[in-house]
Amino acid sequence: MADAASRILELAEHALSTAFPLRVRAWDGTEAGPSGAPVLVLTRRKALRRLLWRPGELGLARAWVAGDLDIEGDLFQALDLLSGLLWERPETGPAPGPVRGTAEAVRRAATVLRDPGTYRLARSALALSGPGLPPAAPPEEVRRRTGIAHTKRRDKAAISHHYDVGNDFYELVLGPTMVYSCAVWGPEAAEAGPAGLDDAQRAKLDLVCRKLDLRPGQRLLDVGCGWGSMVLHAAEHYGVRATGITLSVEQAAYARKRIADAGLTAQIEIRVQDYRDVRDGPYDAISSIGMAEHVGSERYLEYARTLYGLVRPGGRLLNHQIGRRPLRDEEGYHVDEFIDRYVFPDGELSPVGTTVARLEEAGFEVRDVEALREHYARTLRAWVANLEAGWPAAVAATSEGRARVWRLYMAASAVSFQRNRIGVNQVLAVRTPEDGDSGMPATRTAWLS
């Protein structure tokens, strides 16, 4: 087992057919790879065993969440270096399934390495990883779900997994505004870190209110209201009567307390309710900020039609949603395994063009699309900085494994936004009356000032 780091590096470079960009430190204290680069630390041999039994992203995620694998140095730089090798390589087929038995592990490793001489390396890797059955998945992982996706019951369970982590944890990560979506950063904001995050989030909420042209006395429905930040801002600054809906019991309790503390219980109602069960329309405006990613592509037209039926003629919808780059073959799209198992169960991303098409198919007239991709990369970096600065408290509020999930998820997402793998867009739509008078301004000037 001497010099495990060199053997791991050799295995990685054969698998990737290129130089491995990170330095490697193994459990035996040995190191190999480029000096000065971030260090991939395999704290236990179990990390390698996880990768051999479950090749690909899920094996890496399990090793990270369990603490068998870590990054020493700049996490963003490390993920950026790995991104082009692991996540942006051309697709060669569906994600590999679980390995069943040592013989299959040898065959799988040899196949992945795609080299006549790699069988020896595969056997070497198995010997290096140590004997034993596949390590158990970390407890933070959601097990495989059965049945039909995006039923009301299954959606509620998925939302609970993601949002009922503990409000203390979210306060630490998100800061006082408790806004869990892309902020809008002005040119005067600080260049790095969480400085200015609260102002940037308030600027985003205000931008949404201006795009919706909110007026005193109007009715606003906020779909996926989170901890109540949007409805609070709209009621306080625009005088609306607001209804917020969420599937998270913890979010609803937190939002109600904030509303009571602000003295706005007469203006704002928070419900634990599925959007498909809202029956008290019409509303003058609807905001949906960071919620539509949970809907699912097969249900998206239903979502759009439901919102169309809940807004009055002339009323507006602001749909703020993460989108992915389109694929040449959309049939080949598969959900990110790490995100699906650890972060957003049953979540799906669609290209912005698909979102616009579904909204229009439901009857909306789409009037404006604004891309905020770079703003989200910056927002995520601020959240990671908050998490790292409060690490002991974050672990105490949840678990070390859950905190590790969030650190990797947010840092990797920041890199994905930077590299244009994903984006985020505000789509402003209106339910145009039959006479064609949408009531929309001729230019964006109305909400830019």
From TrEMBL:
Q: Does the keyword S-adenosyl-L-methionine apply?
A: yes
Q: Does the keyword Transferase apply?
A: yes
Domain Polyketide synthase-like methyltransferase intervals? 169-429
Q: Where is this region: Disordered?
A: 130-149
Q: Which Pfam families match?
A: CMAS
Q: Which UniProt keywords apply?
A: Lipid metabolism, Methyltransferase, S-adenosyl-L-methionine, Transferase
CDD domains for the chain:
AdoMet_MTases
In which family does this protein belong, per the annotation?
Belongs to the CFA/CMAS family.
- The protein's name in its UniProt record: Cyclopropane-fatty-acyl-phospholipid synthase family protein
Organism whose genome encodes this protein = Actinacidiphila acidipaludis
